[in-house]
Amino acid sequence: FQFGATLDMLIFMRVLGLHTRSYKLAAQTARRERDNLHSMAHTDPLTGLPNRRILDFAVSNAISARKPDELVAVYMLDLDGFKQINDQFGHDTGDAFLIEVARRLQAALRSSDVVSRLGGDEFLVLSSGLRNEAQVRELGEKLLKAMHEPFNVSGHICHVGLTVGYGIAPADGLDTRTLLKKADAAMYAGKQAGKGRVAGPAETTLAQPA
After folding, report:
1. Active-site residue 113, yes or no?
2. pTM of the model
3. How confident is the model at residue 34 (pLDDT cuts 50, 70, 90)?
4. Which of 121, 172, 175, 184 is catalytic?
């Protein structure tokens, strides 16, 4: 009887241990799936950069936290010459190139700045705590210079330029949508003026037909 009771207890403990392990594995799997879903919802799957949703949230927070004497700048970045890289070397190289562009942009920015990928070869940058428009343009020029050195991607030497448009809070608006619209219009004006430059809302006005 004692032997049977002991055997039953051992079997019960074994089964309990297997169930506990199963529950732990299920919990770990659920956490991983939750983290993956969270990452997919908030980051660009190619570059790992924050996506548009996170940038919108960051811009709203930056505007709300802005001091009266500070500016918040939103930059729209579009690569000049990326299509030729895709056409010449293929989409795999194009994707690898975009990852390198993301890394180089991050290296050129301050730790407090946010760089995001909008899609394709368009990127967005948020910078806060700026003192004047000269400083806004200076950061835009720094982004241009970050693209000057050629990229070595998958054994291919790739050259690309950059056109940057920006909008500034509070002068150009106090919400994300308005600032992005201003930055996009300025970037388009920069493209029309010859690419490879930084353009602000003033250039947008000049670019409009009479």
Report:
1. no
2. 0.79
3. very low
4. 121
